[in-house]
Amino acid sequence: MLQPVQLFKLLSDETRSAIVMLLRESGELCVCDICAATAESQPKISRHMAMLRESGMVIDRREGKWVHYRLSPHMPAWAAAIIDSAWNCERENVCKKLDNTSPTSC
Questions:
Q1: Whether the Cβ atoms of residue 60 and residue 53 lie closer than 8 Å to each other
Q2: Is 71 exposed, middle or buried (0-12, 13-18, 19+ CB in 10 A)?
Q3: What is the pLDDT of residue 18?
Q4: What would you measure as the largest C-alpha separation in the chain, in angstroms?
Q5: Which range is least confidently modeled, 11-20, 79-88, 94-103?
Q6: pTM of the full predicted structure?
Q7: With CB atoms 3.0 to 4.6 Å apart as the test, which of 6, 36, 57, 87 could cross-link to 24 if both were Cys?
Q8: d(CA 57, CA 43)
Q9: What tens digit of pLDDT does each residue of 18-57 get?
């Protein structure tokens, strides 16, 4: 079960925080989309995704060779509320990042 200290440690990293905000806005993204939005390398994003997945914050699904990630619907309500509050503050910045990857975002 995700604990508050664990959530704050995960979100204290700028890359992981950006990933969570991107997933909150988009619903679901593959690693290549996250790499494009964050301007980070695939190995770095994959390492951060593993940490988020192990914590239970994100889940994945495989479609052929692609792996798509989304925020877990099983996340505690208090954690989802914190993410929503942060997303409300960062929405404009998140949309700008997504504009680089998808013409239909935001």
A1: yes
A2: buried
A3: 95
A4: 37
A5: 94-103
A6: 0.87
A7: 87
A8: 19
A9: 999 999 999 999 999 999 999 999 999 999 999 999 999 9
Q: What is the DSSP string of 13-46?
A: SHHHHHHHHHHHHHS-EEHHHHHHHHT--HHHHH
In which element (H, E) is residue 59 found?
A: strand 58-63
Q: Give the pLDDT confidence of 73-85 residue by residue, as tens digits.
A: 999 999 999 999 9
DSSP state of 67: E
d(CA 83, CA 29): 17
